[in-house]
Amino acid sequence: MMVPPFFQVAWFSLLMSGCTYTRLEATVACGDDEANLQQLSLLNTSGNTSLLHIDPKSDVICLLYPTHEVNCSWSLESLEMKANVTTTISICNGDKTMQTQESKISTGSHSSLIEKTITELILHFNISLHDQWAVYYYKIDNESLEVLPPPPDVKGSFKDNDLFITWGLPFCQIDCSNGILEYELHISDQEKPKYVMALQSYTEPNVDLTQSYTVTIRTRVSEYYAGSHHWSDWSHPVTIEAKQLTYQLTAEMIIAISVGIPMILLALLLVVCQRLSKRLFPPIPSPPPRYLHVLQNGDHFVSPDLAVKPDEEITLVFYSENEKTHKSRPI
After folding, report:
1. In angstroms, rounded to a whole number, what is the distance separating the alpha carbons of residues 94 and 85?
2. Most exposed among 66, 138, 201, 321, judged by the fewest C-beta atoms under 10 Å?
3. Residues 64-73: pLDDT tens digits?
């Protein structure tokens, strides 16, 4: 990486004057437009970049959370153990420095709570080893710092046999239109989250309607766009209550019902009509068969109960004073 002309001239002047410096301090101030955003710039004595190799994506991480907390961490593992390191973090609001934190360790972290808007953040790594020195600076704008809040207004419902989930756009300080955001949904009965890109809804097909589901969602700016690519926190869990069990009518059930109900109604109607007919039109009494023949021929009818029976023998008993007589005669 090319060294800015100012430092080339300054270093050349020092060499020409015969002075020996083992370390030269160099910093980039807030509002300095010459410092490239999201780039590590190197200044050293010999132009040799082997003193330290830093990968900005893994070795330096700075995040701004929705709670206005700034968190930076760094790990210079490729640096030799004997090197002296001074790490300085400058939090900027325009061209003003809001806060500065200095550390003497090569691997560490820093956290601050900021009330005002952050426009950029600058990290300085001043490193010296034997007769070599180097200054690395890493400048990050607020767009690349911001960690998005979780999506709001998470809702869910059942449609037919599917679980339908919707959510709103998170609040962003940058322009985070729906097209640049990606989402992960965690549904209670599934191990792996569902991935959604550039949408605000998701449909899970063929779910069990008798089961309740809990849904949480998180979001981030897609890696294809500029911005912070760190996932937000998970949203508050939203529970979609189980649906009341309902029976769906099949074609066979519809045919059976359409035929069976009229037949049942017809049978009930016949029973009611039969009972009503007996009450309105009772049957004419008919004599027993043993009397029917006499009535048809005009014969005199004598009840069998009144028929003359044969004479019965009656015994009369007479008593006298001296003896008893016993005579029987028919009457």
Report:
1. 27
2. 321
3. 998 889 999 8
